[in-house]
Amino acid sequence: MVTKRITIDYNSVLKAKIYFFFKRSIWRYLFAILPIAYIFPLNPPGFLLSGLIYFFIFTIVILVPLYHFSSVRMAKKIDFDAEVTFTDAHIVVVHKNRQSTEIKEWTWIRNIDITSNNIWLVTNEVPRFLISLSKNNLSENERLFFEEIKRKKPAA
């Protein structure tokens, strides 16, 4: 059993957006930039390096401000402050700001991604909701609990 307080704020929303960007979106953006680099290559660097330059400019000029402002907006919109208890059977969400309790099955979690620094729990909600647990804040037993749940859970 693992109990953690989960709050949604600007940092957690931005962290989730960056996670999904590197997990899924980066390749889509890179492949979308390639036709532009092919049609309008920069003279000295050539086609592929032009694509990387265009991607870098696109990221700085468009994506960084977009992710910042959408994170601010989502943090204000999503009002989530809860004590979440993960057990083998289910997940109990006790909302601090709404004075309510939800009991969710493990089907609520779409995917568990364990990296060197974090445990990422992606939910089956729209919009995507990500619970990020830093391994530094988890005990060895808590880390093993999530690894065991990941082994039991079929991949989504």
Protein described:
The chain is of the alpha+beta class and 156 residues long. A hairpin with a 6-residue loop joins strand 6 (118-123) and strand 7 (130-134). The mean pLDDT is 89. It starts with a strand and ends with a helix. The strands form 2 sheets. Strands 1-2-3-4 form a 4-stranded antiparallel beta sheet, with no helix packed on it. It has helices at 10-39, 47-77, 140-152; strands spanning 2-7, 81-86, 91-95, 100-104, 109-114, 118-123, 130-134. The longest helix is centred in the middle third of the chain and has 31 residues, at 47-77.
What is the mean pLDDT? 89
Q: Which blocks of ≥5 consecutive residues have pLDDT under 50? A: none
Separate helix tally? 3
Instruction: Note the main sheet.
Output: 4 strands, antiparallel
Element order: H for helix, E for strand? EHHEEEEEEH
Overall structural class, as computed from helix and strand content, comes to alpha+beta
Helix content: 40-55%
Strand segment count: 7
| Share of residues in strands | 25-35%
Distance between the termini: 23 Å
Tell me the radius of gyration. 19 Å
Strand order of the largest sheet: 1-2-3-4
Identify the overall geometry.
elongated
Describe this structure in a few short sentences.
By secondary structure, the chain is of the alpha+beta class. It is 47% helix and 25% strand.
Note the main attributes of this structure.
156 residues; alpha+beta; 4-stranded antiparallel beta sheet; 3-stranded antiparallel beta sheet; elongated
